[in-house]
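Lecture notes, unit on protein representations.

Consider one protein chain, 172 amino acids long.
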Amino acid sequence: MVNRGLKLLWVGVVLGLAIALSGCAVSGFGPWGRHARYTGFDPDSVNPGGAADFTILVPLTGIFYDRINARRFNSLATYEDPSLREFFRSEGAFADYYAALAEALERAHFASVRPTSVRLDRMERIEPNAVLVEVSFRGKNGLPLRFWSTSVTRRDRWEFGAGRWWIIPGKL
């Protein structure tokens, strides 16, 4: 009888794990850029007709958005993190971007103003050395009695200049 109970418990654990893993696969928040749409360029080639190197753009955006993921945006520690600032040309540009992202997460009711996953949806070449990057952030809903997640989609402009890629924030 005990042996049968252990078997049932084992089957339950295996089924639960299978359901959890299939839910992750359906969400699309997997390896960076695998399911993204690319318009106007090939992410595996250099920029024809420009100086920008697109081969580093997808991994570079992955590094930046991975640094944002699971960070509290109502925290001074996140705001003062130098690893986030290195993607911006100036302190003012970083402050503008940070304020806009924190406000978007707050308006979408992210719990603790913290995204828990980020996905690259699309990259569109809008100029010879500029790309529009569309990403989706997902996180726990911070409103009472809301067990489902919340999400927000951002469109960030990345430009190639002075030998590297920079994020160019829009103004609030």
